[in-house]
Design brief:
alpha/beta; Rossmann fold; three-stranded parallel β-sheet; about 35% helix; elongated
Length: about 250
């Protein structure tokens, strides 16, 4: 799939959680570098496209509720993708692109799904000791190497930036000002929750202590954010603080 068959359409199975999705940004940027002319679709949960809505490295989105795998197969098959790269490790993701007959299917060889992939990348033991950003970058590097024989993926300075239009920035500042936030100060956004694993949560009193220190310096505002099911957790942290933060959780 090179000179004889150029890659015109790329499907990316994104991560399911906001934090993990943010970690895929450098890898998504590298995919755009590799497939400059291709149409890149991000397949993800319905709640996540807003995160990437202004990203220049994504052309469109494919969303589907988790149980609806047959309509997803039909949608993928109808779009005739040339390449599918799976940032998600689920067996089901590999099964969907296999059944949809995407010609090149790249992902990590996890959960017994290797036989469903044309490019099953082994998970090196050292890879799990690195930052999550490099887990996704490595997969893109292996895909580029498979297609071209070499890779130019930037592992030294991963770019995690997301573009935000001036219009959205103005709306955001206006909203924060309406909530009493001094928009002239630095803004520190704290997301203390972890919906899919309580073991990942830092202790609430530590979030409260760090947030208090930031507020007491006088040059920053603190905002707590998170999912609707984390409202009680955010309120619990705010109640332990000496200074009240703005709670936008939910």
């Amino acid at each position: 799939m090179s000179a004889t068959r150029p890659v015109r359409k790329v499907l990316v199975r994104g991560a399911n959680w906001v934090g993990d999705a943010v970690m895929t940004i450098p890898a998504l940027r590298e995919l755009r570098r590799i497939f400059v002319e291709a149409h890149i679709t991000l397949w993800t949960k319905p709640s996540l496209p807003d995160l990437f809505v202004e990203a220049e490295f994504i052309d469109d989105f494919l969303t589907a509720p988790a149980p609806a795998w047959r309509p997803t197969v039909a949608a993928i098959k109808s779009r005739s993708y040339d390449v599918a790269i799976l940032f998600q490790n689920a067996f089901r993701a590999a099964l969907v692109v296999f059944v949809a007959r995407v010609p090149l299917r790249c992902g990590y060889r996890t959960g017994g799904r290797g036989f469903l992939l044309t490019h099953a990348v082994p998970v090196d033991s050292g890879l799990k000791l690195q930052h999550q950003v490099f887990y996704y970058l490595n997969l893109v590097a292996e895909l580029e190497r498979a297609l071209t024989g070499q890779t130019h993926v930037n592992f030294d300075t991963p770019n995690l930036a997301l573009p935000v239009s001036l219009q959205r920035q103005r709306r955001g500042r206006a909203f924060l000002a309406e909530q009493g936030v001094d928009v002239g100060k630095a803004l520190v956004v704290v997301n203390p929750g972890a919906t899919n694993s309580r073991a990942k949560r830092w202790l609430p009193e530590r979030f409260a202590s760090v947030s208090d220190r930031l507020l007491e310096r006088g040059d920053a505002s603190v905002v707590l954010i998170g999912a609707p099911e984390e409202i009680a957790w955010a309120q619990h942290i705010a109640a332990q603080m000496r200074r009240r933060p703005l709670v936008l959780t939910g």
